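Sanity check

After download, print the first record. It should look like this:
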Amino acid sequence: MRSLRPMETLAARRAQSDPPVPDYASDLVEGVVAHLGDIDRHIASHAQGWAIDRMPPVDRNILRIAVLELFWRTDVPDGVVIDEAVRLAKTISTERSPAFVNGLLASLLQEKPQLLREGPEPAELAGAGEDAARAEGAARTEPAES
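Expected structure tokens:
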């Protein structure tokens, strides 16, 4: 399924339903797709010496999920978001990844109040599936494995 886009992969996994895809996982996929441009801008503005497309895909996607949770979700405390992202990086990425993920997210967290004042209010992802489908169509230039 690596050649499929995120929303296509999600649809295929839902169709398999063995094991069932948790609603929260679906919300994360839909949210990242819906807000991908803004998420990547937040990451790029704090990724010193790293372009988004040059980051290891695992790190890039851990960061995308964490930034979504930090800025567009209100159901997970910021500290938990960062702890889980770092723990995930320790488990499935490179030796240097946990420090990179922690540093980037900590930097973003320090600027979160200012960034929220400058941009739209974060919102729960109700209806994000429709926005995600539109964003998926617009994001056709994004590499499939992202």
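If your output differs, re-run the checksum step. Summary of this record's structure: Residues 123-146 have pLDDT under 50 and may be disordered.
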